[in-house]
Amino acid sequence: MATRKSAGTYVLGTGLSHDGSACLLKDGVLEVAIEKERITRVKHDGFNDDVAIRYCLDAAGIGFDDVDLVVQNANFSNLDRGDQFFQGERRAIPKDVRVETISHHLAHAYSVIGTSPHDDMAILIIDGCGSSFDDCIDLEGASLGAEPPSDEFAHLMFEKDSYYIYENGELRSVFKDFSPFGLFLKSYLMCPPTTKHSIGGLYSAVSQYVFQGMEDPGKLMGLAPYGKPGVYDHPAFDLQDGRVFVRYDWMSRFDRPRLEFEDLDTDFQYYADIAYWMQREIERALLYVVESRHDMVAHSNLGYAGGVALNAVANARILAESPFEDLYIQPAAADNGLALGCAYYGWLEVLGGERKHHSGSTYFGRDYGDSEIRRTLDAEEKVQFDWSVDYVERTAELLAQGKTVAWFDGRSEFGPRALGRRSILADPRRAEMVGHINRNIKRREDFRPFAPSVAVEDAGRFFDCDHASPYMILVAPTREEWRSRIPAVVHCDGSARLQTVSREMTPRYHDLLKAFERHSGIPILLNTSLNRRGMPIVETPQEALDFFLESELDALVINGFLATKRGSTTTEEIPADRTPDWRQKLDLIYGTEA
């Protein structure tokens, strides 16, 4: 290896699954991380990791000769440690760099260990499909849900959930459940796409049935409250001996998958009822697993990851109803978080480094300086802009006037949620914002709800919760007296997928919430990701500017620069006579005023 150019110990983690990502630790502290889709602009992009790795190295100002260790994970196979190719594509990692490979659920588990505020905890991983039995390196000491497969079939049994205990700096495998590869060749329209008995796989399959794709199972969670109870009452799962099994005796009943985008409107209630049923079945299965694992080895703290951990409604029930007292969910819980776990495993287990407490931040993207932002804005004749020290106050004024604002602040978030760094913001008091943003800015289904960002110290005043929710992966009921006053961030069932904002974590965004309170009386903003349907969240100033110009956003704020479109007004309010389409749908469904 070439002579090192920088001080410090660098560990590079990389995930080669779908939703690929890379991250870099320096001396055990997370320096930079990026999801591949943010660079390539291809939603859920993954597998070959070159662009994500180069982004991290460039952001840190180092090269491969500074990297002490690379740790990697791929979903369906453990790579040869010296392999320079993956799925036929050449990788950039030089042959003389040390590379280690770990299995899938172990990577998820270490993403929890590296970022959790707890020193000791139980850890639960539930996803669509993990590593095959013969690739798992965390089987020692674990009880298995069934007899281990023979060598001939070990490559056809895949992780479905794993339970660990992390205490005194050591991870111990407690229980691992496996499932055979699935029945998708039988052509059931709701068949899990990989393993036969996967909770996450079934949820994804139903999402594909309803939405034409598996790209955002969270849509199903948002659609569920529009469904009616009792339309489908057969169980989707069998629950026995602490294990979950997908039933297949009901699948032939479903033969009307959504084929065209318009089908959701023309047959809305049919799909909403399916979503309602499946969401409740997922919650039933998850609560059963969580309680069964606690019965195996009890602990007060639970760390949770895997794609299923992004179900905010189920998460709230786990927090409220399970025997665990505290719940930490790794914010990038799906496969985009694998890179974090790989890097932390490398630092803690391979190199024997000391575990260092993570700040709780998810803001791991590179920094874009004021000079780069100014050059980007200067080059575009269609905008006018200026910079001022009171840009936060000016932004709050625009929002209170009914304007929609693109908010770009410093380093980007890592994970699926916009948390005040790459956000579209609006006034939550204006019900018309739901239809306006969904139709004219996000260009997505009109039933999709929006999340409230609220100053953490004020959250209990508006929402029935006694806990922080900084990562927008828990729901809470909106207090009755506020539901009609902040309608743009309250879902049809009265719930809200909440983001609590602290000044320590996101100071400028917190300042904006307090400035908006001075103009409106509430420290709450509608917050949704700075993108449209099918587009990754924007990463660069140029991408933010391009999106701003092609949408009906009113203003763009980038690190203190406030830009508007030439010829636009900054005082005319959005008409207040638009009725959100989801309220019209509720009137039709229930015959009552929403």
The fourth-level CATH homologous superfamily of the largest domain is: Carbamoyltransferase, C-terminal domain
* Total domains: 3
Query: How large is the share of residues in beta strands?
Result: 15-25%
CATH topology of the largest domain: DHBP synthase
Q: From the alpha-carbon coordinates, what is the Rg to the nearest angstrom?
A: 24 Å
- The tally of beta strands, per DSSP, is 25
* Shape, principal axes of CA atoms: globular
Largest sheet, in brief, is: 8 strands, mixed
- Under the CATH scheme, which class of the largest domain? Alpha Beta
Give the strand line-up of the largest sheet: 16-25-24-17-18-23-19-22
CATH architecture call of the largest domain: Alpha-Beta Complex
| Arithmetic mean pLDDT | 91
Portion in helices? 25-40%
State the end-to-end distance. 66 Å
Low-confidence stretches: 571-594
Helix/strand-derived class? Answer: alpha/beta
Number of helical stretches of at least 4 residues: 17
Query: What oligomeric assembly is this protein in?
Result: single chain
Give a description of the structure:
- The protein is of the alpha/beta class and 594 residues long.
- It folds into three domains: 10-105 and 338-350, 2-Layer Sandwich (Nucleotidyltransferase, domain 5), CATH 3.30.420; 117-329, Nucleotidyltransferase, domain 5, CATH 3.30.420.40; 370-590, Alpha-Beta Complex (DHBP synthase).
- The chain contains 17 helices and 25 strands.
- The strands form six sheets. It has an eight-stranded mixed sheet with strand order 16-25-24-17-18-23-19-22, with helices on both faces.
- β2 and β3 form a beta hairpin.
- α7 (268-296) runs parallel beside α8 (312-321).
- It is globular, with a radius of gyration of 24 Å.
- The model is unreliable at 571-594 (pLDDT under 50).
